[in-house]
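lol forgot to send this yesterday, sorry. struct tokens for the thing we talked abt
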């Protein structure tokens, strides 16, 4: 979340990012007016409270006059009315403030999704491949029909060889991130509204809200381990010499996948529940750009070792979420579709999430400031299984096991 004083001081910069990120329903004039109004109402409330206290003090030790008693009642009623008004104004102000997206970096391409720029490329593109859904269904490795019967459309069962492959990918991913210094953690599958909002998962519209909420509870199912990991240090001050911190969270992820009309949704590629290993870092502001490149490099290392062709794109502003100042996507080569499809991402969220959840650093000289946060997908299991099937299924119907996964499976093919 951006600070209101920062927004006022840097209005043109903030408006530029709002426009380029295509958040069309944010009116800064309205935000400033709400800020002014709540401050004015607060001043009125404080003045009346001061008058009430003065009136109360005047009655101490003596019998109060009828005028003093009546004045006390009038002040109490006025304060109550103004406090209700102030609460409404504070709520409206905060709702609009938290919708303002983060500032984009200067090297972020401007435009919609089509303006994203390729910055790296690896691997040989296969000319043909096997459709993952037909293949996995024919081998009784995935069952969407029974998944739908139990939980609804886009839920599924993973079985047999595909379940073994998923387990091998998990073990490989965990080994990789821990070798790079990330502390592995299991995380809650739910977060409260403060963490959800502070993490910055603000949709461009209500129709694009992606979370499953628990009825009657202040809880939502997580869409990524990024959410609970961000909340891990909320309301904390971390000493400078302890940064950067690196965590890796393995979790189930739950997404409505709202606003995905027209996007690729076949089979496992876009589902309501999947497992994912997420990398995360809390760091000093001056460290975040370098760490962003480190996380990207680890992601590339993973796909190179798996032997899956990919390219890296610098995501255009119009396709960035609210928290990100810059994001890379890694897209694998789909020999079935003869195009690149999204596989993982890594984002530099600068101080946006840390401000929202009050996560700060104490410098060696004693000063306190907001730190930076970053996140990146190590392995998103459902899409990775799609990529492996498309690139490693053989003509005889067997699935060749990527060399790096053989130690976890003990076989050359499934």
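and heres what i got for the seq, position by position
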């Amino acid at each position: 979340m951006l600070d209101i004083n920062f927004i006022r001081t840097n209005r043109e910069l903030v408006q530029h990012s709002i426009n380029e990120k295509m958040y069309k329903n944010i009116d800064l004039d309205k935000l400033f007016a709400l800020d002014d109004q709540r401050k004015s109402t607060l001043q009125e409330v404080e003045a009346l409270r001061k008058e009430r206290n003065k009136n109360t003090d005047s009655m101490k030790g003596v019998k109060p006059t009828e005028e003093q008693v009546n004045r006390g009642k009038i002040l109490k009623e006025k304060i109550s009315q103004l406090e209700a008004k102030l609460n409404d104004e504070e709520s409206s102000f905060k709702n609009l403030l938290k919708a303002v997206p983060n500032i984009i970096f200067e090297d972020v391409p401007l435009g919609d999704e089509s303006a994203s720029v390729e910055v790296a490329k690896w691997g040989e593109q296969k000319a043909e491949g096997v459709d993952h859904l037909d293949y996995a269904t024919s081998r009784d490795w995935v069952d969407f029909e029974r998944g739908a019967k139990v939980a609804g459309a886009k839920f599924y069962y993973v079985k047999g060889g595909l379940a073994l492959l998923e387990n091998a990918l998990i073990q490989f991913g965990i080994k990789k991130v821990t070798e790079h210094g990330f502390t592995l953690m299991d995380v809650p599958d739910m977060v409260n509204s403060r963490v959800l909002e502070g993490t910055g998962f603000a949709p461009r519209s209500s129709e694009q809200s992606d979370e499953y909420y628990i009825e009657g509870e202040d809880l939502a199912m997580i869409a990524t381990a990024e959410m609970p990991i961000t909340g891990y240090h909320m309301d904390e001050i971390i000493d400078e010499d302890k940064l950067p911190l690196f965590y890796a969270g393995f979790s189930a992820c739950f997404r409505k996948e709202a606003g995905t009309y027209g996007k690729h949704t076949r089979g496992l590629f876009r589902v309501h529940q999947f497992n994912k290993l997420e990398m995360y870092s809390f760091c000093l502001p001056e460290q975040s750009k370098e760490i962003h490149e480190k996380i990207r490099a680890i992601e590339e290392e993973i796909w190179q070792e798996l032997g899956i062709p990919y390219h890296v794109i610098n995501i255009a502003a119009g396709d960035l979420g609210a928290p990100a100042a810059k994001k890379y996507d890694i897209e694998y080569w789909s020999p079935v579709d003869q195009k690149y499809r999204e596989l993982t991402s890594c984002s530099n969220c600068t101080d946006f999430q840390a401000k929202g959840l009050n996560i700060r650093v104490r410098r060696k000289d004693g000063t306190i400031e907001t730190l930076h946060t970053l996140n990146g997908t190590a392995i998103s299991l459902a899409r990775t299984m799609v990529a492996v099937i498309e690139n490693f299924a053989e003509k005889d119907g067997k699935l060749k096991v990527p060399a790096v996964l053989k130690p976890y499976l003990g076989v050359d093919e499934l």
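The longest helix spans residues 66-97. anyway ping me if u want another try
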